[in-house]
Amino acid sequence: MTDYAPRPEDRFTFGLWTVGNIGRDPFGGPVRDVISPVDIVYLLAEVGAYGVNYHDNDLIPIDATPDEERQIIKDFKAALNATGIKMPMATTNLFTDPIFKDGAFTSNDPHVRAYAYQKVLRTIDIGVDLGAKVFVFWGGREGTETDASKNAADAIKRYRDAINFFSEYVISQKYDLRLALEAKPNEPRSDLYLPTTGAMLGFIATLDHPEMVGVNPEVAHEHMAGLNFMHAIAQAWDAGKLFHIDLNDQLFGRYDQDFRFGAAMIKQNFFLVKFLEDVGYTGSRHFDAHAYRTEDYNGVKDFARGCMRTYLILKEKAQQFNADPEIQALLADINADDGTFDYLKTFSAEGAAKLRATDFDRVGIGKKGLSYERLDQLTIEVLLGVR
Length: 387
Hints:
Elements: E1 12-15, H1 16-19, H2 37-47, E2 51-55, H3 56-59, H4 66-83, E3 89-91, H5 110-130, E4 134-138, E5 143-144, H6 152-173, E6 178-182, E7 191-192, H7 197-204, E8 213-215, H8 219-224, H9 229-238, E9 246-247, H10 266-279, E10 285-287, H11 297-323, H12 325-334, H13 349-357, H14 362-367, H15 372-384
Parallel strand pairs: 1-2, 1-10, 2-3, 3-4, 4-6, 6-8, 9-10
Antiparallel strand pairs: 5-7
Helix pairs in contact: 2-4, 5-6, 9-10, 10-11
């Protein structure tokens, strides 16, 4: 690859809340001025992104009048049309406003739950009108600080009722829209329900329409819990549930850092990119991250370009890994299989009897070296650019 310029087929997207992040954190105020959704669309077009995603209130203030809403949508559509930027995903902010201080779908207050339903329906309608094919649910306040406050089983039932309701609504409207659930272990609440991608996959199996609901895993959210993100992605892919993905970077066990993709954990991100490319994932590669608080908007552009460039560099490294003769020879040896045990792929009484009668060289097999040290070193050398 002579350069690492993004192309539309890469499907790189950013949220209005990512490049529009003004650098506020719990200990300091904003360092960048607010820019409009229209300006964000033009910024993303300048850096070569494919698309932009949004929370409802990133685009339309929560207290906007109907006339203001119509004008905002009109201006946003005009910017999308003028730049060619797509809007593949939409989601609802159910965590910022004080009404959601104890959750949205899992709130103990039925008025809060009903308002959350209303807010989601409006966002689904607007999102579909703007081109969204995936609708993400992140339950940022769906949790507790004290388990004395909620019955966890009731909370999960309320969550299920909500997703079932929205599934039926999408079906009733004949929308071409899939729903994706996003897990996070904690923050902003002490404990969030359905905290991991695996938990979400288990939950989806209990829904009325599991076929239309998948997951939107995020690097930072799995890394916060010290988990292997690529393994979560593999499980979601195997289940046919990887509807969307949030890419960023995150050190294990920290607060939600949302670093530029590839900024912290190179090897983990390499195996993630390699997996996505090897299996042929065709969905959006959405960067749910934000620039360092040190940056102005030129730095934000550097951040956005860096996310995409790093992905493409790691994609090239994955291709190099897959074509490296020594690496592939090692992998062939590690995975050698002469077919002796193919009969175990499907159970039969004869196969079970044959297995019982087999004499294994347990000691000899246990002594065999697997060359993983060599394989890992070669991986590092690919990443360091010395192969």
